């Protein structure tokens, strides 16, 4: 409820729309940036502050799985750039990935009496066998758990490039940007479309960082553990060829956590979006839908806060409105349809076709809407109201003694 009140207040903070010349003229006279009485900010300040926040929300916030030990520096850089691109285009996919790893890590922690950090390290391919294969399947864990328990939590955290304090500071950075936006709303100062888009990234980033608070950051080398009994996967002799995994497998595996195509004993690292599938599959699936579709609706709803903002043209205004509404509403509608079809087992016939159509439309239209919002966030900077350059007067919040 508080979230929707927040979005409503943001939407009301600027009632300047194209086609209302009286409002435009009033905006030019009411709140202009007079540096003699107001604290001003420049266009560079706006852009730099937003880009720095987006970078922190997409690059710095990423906690990748342990990479292949043979990858070079350039390959590692491209790997993280791809993850960053996914975060910018579809941040809810990263939230779903982080939520799955969190649930799996907590389940492993309780089931095998280890720390949550140990659980995350299992999920990210941090433990490998003496042959160099990841210990990353549920049926493998009992054979290696005695050796894993002997590894101290501090030894795992020592491999991390960030501790709890640094992660807390990063979370505070996102919360600070949210606070600045709230302060502008409180003082009836408009937010630019770029700031609204950045606000959406900041909110999602805080969620991601909280889910990954106990996950080691940027670990490059795994820890070798010995097994106390026969590895069941080696006993089964599953060694599929490395080219058996298609691009479609990787995409759907990353979004829905379906990694049936992945076999640890034929690889030296886990996939980029990998998390161990726990026994509580219903909870696992629920977390996936909540992360991917629920957070997607929140992300789009924040963009709807700029519904009444000033746009340079009517076309840009309606493109922004349609794109933000689609991102906010369509994932929720798709989720409800999938749940209804699952409850009543209606995947056969026309209902299955409708569900498939909704999913296909979302995968095609959603990236386009995200791209439109990203482009408009920058193109609308060419025509900002004078009040957009007025900075927040923080002295209003300091009690006068």
UniProtKB/TrEMBL annotation:
Residues 1-19 form the signal peptide. The keyword Transferase does not apply. It comes from the Eukaryota. Keywords: Membrane, Signal, Transmembrane, Transmembrane helix. The chain crosses the membrane at residues 43-62, 83-103, 194-212, 284-306, 318-344, 350-376. This is Transmembrane protein. The lineage of its organism: Eukaryota, Fungi, Dikarya, Basidiomycota, Agaricomycotina.
